[in-house]
Amino acid sequence: MTVAQERALVIGASLAGLRGAESLRRAGFTGPVTIVGAEPHAPYDRPPLSKHVLTGEVPADATTLPNLTALDADWRLGVAATTLDRHNRVVGLATGEALAYDRLLIATGTRAREWPDAAQGRLAGVFTLRNRDDAAALRRALTAGPSRVLVVGGGFIGCEVAASCRALGLPVTLVETGPTPLARVLGQNLGAVVAAMHEGLGVVIRSGTKVERLEDDGSGHVTGARLDDGSTVAASVVVVALGAVRNTEWLAGSGLSFDTDGVDCDANGHAVDADGRPDPRIAAAGDVARFPHPLYDGRRVALEHWGHAVAQAEHAGRLLAGTRPGAAYAELPAFWSSQGGITIKSVGLTEGADGLVIAQGDPKQGRFLAVYGRAGRCIAAVSFDCARWLPAYAEQIRAGSPFPPIRGATDQGALTILSPGFPEQRRPEVSR
Amino acid sequence: MSDVTLFAQVKDPENRPNPYPLYAKLRDTPVSHQDDGTQDGIWVASTHAAISSLLHDPRISSETLPAADRPRTGNPFIDWVVKPIRDRITDTHRPFIFRDPPDHDTLRAAVMHEFTRERVRGLRGRADTLVEDILAKHCNARDIDIVSDLAYPLPVTVICELLGVPADDEPKFHDWATQLATALEPDTLTDDALRAENSRTFDAISDYMSGLIAQKRKAPKDDMLSGLAAGKAPGVPAMGTYDLIATSILMLVAGHETTVNLITNGMLALLRNPHELQRLRDDPARAPRLIEELLRYDPPVQFRNRTTLAEIGIAGTTIPKGVSVVLLLASGNRDPAAFSDPERFDPDRSDNRHLGFGGSLHYCVGAPLARFEAEAALVALARRLNNPRLIADPPPYRPGSALRGPKHLRLSIDGLTG
Q1: What is the pLDDT confidence band of residue A430, given thresholds at 50, 70 and 90?
Q2: Final residue of a domain: which of A222, A242, A262?
Q3: Interface contact A88, partner B, CB < 8 A
Q4: Among A242, A265, A296, residue at a domain's last position
Q5: What is the DSSP string of A256-322?
Q6: Are the C-beta atoms of A386 and A378 separated by less than 8 Å?
Q7: What is the CATH number of domain B6-412?
Q8: What rounded mean pLDDT belongs to chain B?
Q9: Of A127, A177, A125, A133, which Cα lies nearest the Cα of A155?
Q10: In this structure, what CATH number is given to the domain that contains residue A426?
């Protein structure tokens, strides 16, 4: 068990870092705990940043996360970790300092993927959205009355930003290279429902189209974009929503197995080296951790889900405190998104699905629940304003029930198996 | 299986004052099959986890009432023309407590649209005044019956004002409401005489409501019935007359029967836990926590029935398709797997996820009303009753095992203070 003098280091001061440190303490770790965060802010909640913060219902600085337990820790905020030396058990900081550790939690999360052309990406009026400061800056730009907002990318952040802009009454165009918004996660079938929902809100959707370049007025302000079909979109605000990049560069030279899609863990949650050997002093949690999921045949996944960050961090905290894990981390993946008053919730992973049924409700009414199946078993369920039934389907997914899972539900007759319609080139290891 | 099943004992009036030891035995098997004299028997879910899971299972249906079948009268016109029409209307226009999606959702949405924050807030202040008025009649009393003197008249007045039912008509539908509340009792499924009586009552109250609705259509007022009749909820079609009748009867009955028990069970719990009574007297701000604990500890609705639309595998057993399932909410509320020290009445418990209002799509529509009515009543009783003492413990109970509560709760008091 824990020796009092042992030192714990948590790299990353967001949701997973905070909950991981709390879990360490709750599991009885009594040594010094230091939490290092690249951002200057105390841990805050990210989900509101693309929703209530943009619409002005919640100020960006009102998103600070509550502490669940009184947390005795040293905070090093506003300084990034730059190196990991596992031999000497030292993490180097951007200030040149070195912090020694006996237990290390890697929870550095992700950052927004930048616009590929750096000069265009630096134009005034071009934003990405990942941090609290990003959200505050975008909020200011939205309240300044932009002529039009161009959202590049129809993933969850892009869709939420577009819906928030419509809630503010701003003209919005959303450009998505795939056949529909959210096609990568939900497939084209439900993606078309999402597209119709956004069109109903007044978002102009340009699917199957790529932004070729961002254009400017010659004095450093963006004026719009040229698309690959030759057309242009005039916009004074551009939000680049092309997904996230995992913050793993600082692990270069550490000997751990990592790449831009995450740091690899074993089933317990310990980080592994290039030969697959776990380092018992190091665990990873949250967006940055790529781990074998027992519900998905041990396939390694990295999940950018809020609830996952909490659950996996709690697991990692117990692991580092020396509590023997009763079982491998196996939480069912789950996420939510709210767009234009509709709440989308999901359990399981849709990846690889070969079938889809509308199990409850009716997409035409905007209220329904869809279940995804693969090889005759259900693997995921997605609800649109219909979340109360989700736990029943989550049970079926956990149990690996036959697909379709529930017949004879209160409001459905015969179930029709549809094709989910995933576009080609899905990135296999990443969900959401 | 023993000769007298546990659930039969739950229904036995002998056990009405304290069914909780029976629930504890039922929880040994989270979902158990019980013989109730019917061919299939009945399935009883008794743990918090099993009940929560079934409440959120789309294979569970609330359309449990057997098809209407009014008794023959001997008059050929009534028996061969009127009766089939009325039976059909009753079957197709059930109140939404007995309906499934999508119809349920439409009806409920229309009601929720009229259940505005302003209306609830307005009634909240009204409840305090009503309690004061009621207690003013008893200022020199040496005894009081919590049920007939306060717990009954308060919710009745509130629900009448909310709906826009003239208070003078109350005596007419008092008996109707009491009779129709038996629709939630398990015997409704099997007892023909009870069903016949419910049919007659339903017809009588329907006639009354249909007249009232016609009035509201002619001269709308600022009340819920007028609002429902006008059908202004966005995206929801206006209710037809028969749905409107069924919905308003449901609200009237629900407003009559459940809050009475919440207030009475609350006073009983406070008298059995005098230090909590004293703490409420000293600090009325404790009321909200106290009421949530009451809804856990001794809820007005002990259980609800459902039927299965498909086989459901749960808690190591399989409930077949098409059978009756009892969700024993009051047992889930005492489940040690969900609550620490569950047999203790403790308003300070931190994670009180009680099932007192049910859950999922049929979660109690009137919950906000019930909460503030109970608050108004219990705070005033704690403050004003001087040295209250139970005359009989346990008090006499009404027959219902699903909607369970004392028939009377007589107290000796040394007058009222304040």
Answers
A1: very low
A2: A242
A3: no
A4: A242
A5: B-EETTEEEB-TTSEEEBTTS-EEEEEEE-GGGEEEEEGGGTTEEEEE--HHHHHHHHHHHHHHHHT
A6: no
A7: 1.10.630.10
A8: 91
A9: A177
A10: 3.30.390.30
Of B53, B102, B360, the CB nearest to A411: B102
Closest-CA residue of chain A to B235 = A365
The 10s digit of each residue's pLDDT in B212-246 is: 999 999 999 999 999 999 988 888 888 989 999 99
The residues in A 109-128 lying below 8 A from B, measured between CB atoms, are none
Q: Give residue-wise pLDDT tens across range B258-268.
A: 999 999 999 99
Q: Least CA distance to A413: which residue of chain B?
A: B309
Q: Are A158 and A127 spatial neighbours (Cβ–Cβ below 8 Å)?
A: no
Whether residue A410 and residue B310 make contact (CB cut-off 8 A), yes or no, is no
**In this structure, what are the phi and psi dihedrals at residue B236, rounded to the nearest 5 degrees?**
-125, 125
Alpha helices in A27-171 (DSSP H): 52-55, 118-121, 132-143, 156-167
Residues A56 and A91 in one domain: yes
CB proximity B412 to A under 8 Å? no
Total domains in the fold of chain A: 3
**Taking the domains of chain B in order of start, what are their residue ranges?**
6-412
Q: Are residues A104 and A123 located together in one domain of the fold?
A: no
Residue A72 placed within a domain: yes
Average pLDDT over residues A56-62: 95
Residues A130 and A233 in one domain: yes
Q: Which residues contact A84 (CB under 8 A, 6 or more apart)?
A: A90, A91, A92, A104, A250, A251, A253, A254, A256
Compute how many other C-beta atoms are within 10 angstroms of the C-beta atom of residue A326.
6
Domain range spanning residue A81?
3-111+245-320
Q: How does pLDDT run across A250-259, given as a tens digit for each residue? A: 999 999 999 9
DSSP output for A100-118: E-SEEEE---EEEPPPSSH
Judged against a pLDDT cut of 80, whether residue A395 lies above it is answered with yes
| DSSP-derived pairing of the beta strands A278-284 and A103-106 | parallel
